[in-house]
Amino acid sequence: MKWITREHPKIDRIACPWLIKNFVDKDAEFIYTAKELVVEKAEELNAIPYDIAGVEYTHYGEECTFDYIIKKHCITDSALLDIATIVRGADTDSFQLAPQSAGLWSISAGLSYNYPDDHEMLEIGMKMYDALYSWAKYVKDEKHNWNP
Fold first, then answer.
1. What is the pLDDT of residues 13-47, one digit of tens each?
2. Which residues, 6+ apart, have CB-to-CB distance to 45 below 8 Å?
3. Chain centroid, CA 148 distance in Å
């Protein structure tokens, strides 16, 4: 299936493709376009619009699109639920939700600056979310304990 959203992604528009590709639709194709063209292009390309106001896959209340995808597709993986809190904090400027949220925002903003090509950034961002998932799934309780 094709999925479409607005260009120049940062948090949700990188996190959601990672979530979709790994847990919802392994054959997903992602399209970025100008904000004002998302709905029109979605109809034209038979694509699912996401992370834009007025569509099904979007923010609801204080939750972001990543949260909606988890609920919509009944995903219960505890690591993903942890990541959802981090993504929500980063995407809604609610850094108090998780200590990792501010770092995720910083890295995402930096990636957006360094990679003006949305698909190139998506490729790098997918690896970043692979690493975040591995942390949440396997090593989140590990502490850095270097002591000189």
1. 999 999 999 999 999 999 999 999 999 999 999 99
2. 2, 4, 31
3. 37
Question: Rounded to an integer, what distance in angstroms lies between the CA atom of residue 92 and that of residue 64?
Answer: 7
Torsion of CA 54, 52, 6, 90, to 10 degrees: 170
For the entire predicted model, the pTM comes to 0.94
Distance CA(99)–CA(30), nearest Å, equals: 29
Query: What are the strands, taking DSSP E only, across the chain?
Result: 2-6, 29-33, 47-49
Q: Tokens 């619009």 appear where? A: 49
Residues 6+ apart with CB under 8 A from 144: none
Domain ranges of the chain: 2-139
Residues in the chain, total: 148
Q: What is the DSSP letter of 135?
A: I
Residues 6+ apart with CB under 8 A from 23: 73, 75, 77, 80
Max CA separation in the chain (angstroms):
61
Instruction: Summarize pLDDT for 65-95 with one digit per residue, the tens.
Output: 999 999 999 999 999 999 999 999 999 999 9
| CB atoms closer than 10 angstroms to residue 144 | 4
